Amino acid sequence: MEFPPALARKYGKNGEWDYLPCTPECEKKNEQREWELSRREARVASLKERSGLSKRMKGYTLASFKPYVDRSAARAVERVEAYLKDWEEMREAGRGLFFCGGVGTGKTHLAVAVMNELIHRRRVPALFVTVPELLDNIRETYNVPGRNLDDWMEAVKNADLLVLDDLGAEKPSDWVQERMFVIVNHRYREALPTIFTSNIGPEELPRQLGERTASRVIAMCEGIKLDGRDYRETARNEGA
């Protein structure tokens, strides 16, 4: 049986599968796809390198979170997934998240999981900073001659996405409140999404941070409360 020329190229003269080498145009498309993939991977690696995340935190994902630990954790995951789904809208509105709850309830894991998802999925430049570390670094500029953190502070204030971990951990003082107001107010005015974690709830923020900062945190974030068992202890026991 004779196949038409077009089919003969596909099936061969005897009707058997015939391997067709990639055309120059096909090779060019493949090279373009490989280059784009390599570029995306390099971009993600670069973002993670500059994210401020520890080696352990770079592995925090929604998949590695255990939402069955308690009901509040399951609800938190649902709300995080909705936030990620609507990221472009959240980004445009400058909306963030405020995770609060006791020690070990998974607040930081979920906050960092959001950050990692956005770095991987959307290649969003993001920065993770603990509030005590942030304040310690600012203090050092006063105490260490030649210590200059202008570039780092600009990164904190202007990151596309900022995760501020352990808000309210510092002893309240006028100095702490003023420093936090400068950062939070800038991000509020510029509509830059910020994710906070805290051991204290929204009702305690004014006493800890001052009315001005507290009102902005509440206005720019959706509150998510985790009030279950110690997440780290549960996960550790399951891995035993």
Short summary of the structure?
The chain has 240 residues and is of the alpha/beta class. Helices cover 55% and strands 12% of the residues. Helix 8 runs parallel beside helix 10.
SSE topology:
Layout: H1 5-11, H2 24-49, H3 71-85, H4 87-93, E1 96-101, H5 107-122, E2 126-130, H6 131-143, H7 150-158, E3 161-167, H8 174-189, E4 194-198, H9 205-209, H10 211-220, E5 221-226, H11 231-239
Parallel strand pairs: 1-4, 1-5, 2-3, 3-4
Helix pairs in contact: 3-5, 8-10
Give me the CATH architecture of the largest domain, please.
3-Layer(aba) Sandwich
The low-confidence runs, each spanning 5 or more residues with pLDDT under 50, are 1-13
Shape: globular
Topology as a string of helices (H) and strands (E): HHHHEHEHHEHEHHEH
The whole-angstrom Rg is 24 Å
Average of the residue pLDDT scores: 83
Detailed description of the structure:
The structure is a single chain. The chain is of the alpha/beta class and 240 residues long. It folds into 2 domains: 20-49; 52-239, Rossmann fold (3-Layer(aba) Sandwich). Helix content is 55%, strand content 12%. The protein has 11 helices and 5 strands. The chain has helices at 5-11, 24-49, 71-85, 87-93, 107-122, 131-143, 150-158, 174-189, 205-209, 211-220, 231-239; strands spanning 96-101, 126-130, 161-167, 194-198, 221-226. The chain has a 5-stranded parallel beta sheet with strand order 2-3-4-1-5, sandwiched between helices. Helix 3 runs parallel beside helix 5 and helix 8 packs parallel to helix 10 (211-220). The protein is globular, with a radius of gyration of 24 Å. The model is unreliable at 1-13 (pLDDT under 50).
